[in-house]
Amino acid sequence: MTLADEPASKTRAAANGAALARHVDADIAAGRKVLTLEASALQSLAEALDRSFAEAVEALLKVKGRVIVSGMGKSGHVARKLAATLASTGTPAQFVHPAEASHGDLGMIMADDAVIALSNSGETRELSDLIAHAHLRGIPLIAVSSRAGSSLVQAADIGLVLPAAKEACPNGLAPTTSTTMMLALGDALAVALMTRRGFSPDDYRVLHPGGSLGQALQRVSSLMHVGEAMPLVAEDAPMPDVLIAISSKGFGCTGVVDGKGLLVGIITDGDLRRHVGRDLMDRSAAEIMTHGPKTVPDTMLAVEALRLMTKGRPAITSLFVVAAADTEGRPLGFLHMHDLIRAGIDPPRPGEEG
């Protein structure tokens, strides 16, 4: 931009600022109206859940194959999301486009499957062949629609009817409130199925091995150092042995165990600095150790261990791991903060604690 362009640029910026000032209140009001309408609709949906919802959950639990989810247009986008959510939470699922179903993709839907069909009006023509296929093969059909008397709900084995609610679109045309309710109802089904299946964080990690979430759901037992890799010395170990243990293992510390093999203390670089003196090398491990080191059970999630390490000031860089059922404190493994970070587990951001 040249100097000659500067006045024009400032004029445009001023004009844009003035335009924003004229519309800011109206824009915020419009946004709040949408969110208020949709929040009210979700509350109505929660209150409207009845026995048919429980019947849908029961039917989906009995499926030996996959849950086929289908819908057209905006309902199709919601259906894709529902299929993905079900699949990632322990219920095998697949989206099938209703128009493509009429051109060969019906072959993806088998007798052991179940179908969830989404249509706000319940009169989506593209779903007709899929509905007929479900009837022909005896496949359970669950409908999600805003009209109890629609063709889709009447044809279904179980109908989940959305409560009457005004679309947030000012013209009442664009699917907004209705698709929000569909999306939330799909989440409710997925979570209810998770609960009935007893789907655990470990199960979730199996299906999400990639990314920070999958890594964070690892247990400390899968990351800890065990056996000879653990930095340990006896209570009566002379200082030269302590220094060798600290330097050779490379963790900057060593645990101290008593005659029964129970963890009774820890010696860190800081402990060594505090006891620097002419008689340091004449002391034993028990004389300079810090008593009662922090330990964690082997069943703890790795992300919880990292949170424990970083919440104090100064942060703890290492922890000893004990068996969850061990009440005495026998060291089972050793965990360093670097092990967690190398595994891709993110430390909590400021403000996330509490």
Supply database-style keywords.
354 residues; alpha/beta; CBS-domain; 2 domains; 4-stranded mixed β-sheet; 45% helix; 15% strand; elongated
Topology:
Blueprint: H1 6-48, H2 51-61, E1 67-71, H3 74-88, E2 93-95, H4 98-101, E3 114-118, H5 128-137, E4 141-145, H6 151-155, E5 158-161, H7 177-197, H8 201-207, H9 211-216, E6 232-234, H10 239-249, E7 253-257, E8 263-268, H11 269-274, H12 285-288, E9 290-291, E10 295-297, H13 302-311, E11 318-322, E12 331-336, H14 337-342
Parallel strand pairs: 1-2, 1-3, 3-4, 4-5, 6-7, 10-11
Antiparallel strand pairs: 7-8, 8-9, 11-12
What this model shows, in words?
The protein has 354 residues and is of the alpha/beta class. It has two domains: 32-199, Rossmann fold, CATH 3.40.50.10490; 220-342, CBS-domain, CATH 3.10.580. The protein is built from 14 helices and twelve strands. The chain has helices at 6-48, 51-61, 74-88, 98-101, 128-137, 151-155, 177-197, 201-207, 211-216, 239-249, 269-274, 285-288, 302-311, 337-342, and strands at 67-71, 93-95, 114-118, 141-145, 158-161, 232-234, 253-257, 263-268, 290-291, 295-297, 318-322, 331-336. The strands form three sheets. Strands 2-1-3-4-5 form a five-stranded parallel β-sheet, sandwiched between helices. Strands 6-7-8-9 form a four-stranded mixed β-sheet. Strands 10-11-12 form a three-stranded mixed β-sheet. A hairpin with an 8-residue loop joins strand 11 (318-322) and strand 12 (331-336). Helix 2 packs across helix 7 (177-197) and helix 3 packs parallel to helix 7. The radius of gyration is 31 Å and the shape is elongated. The two termini are 49 Å apart.
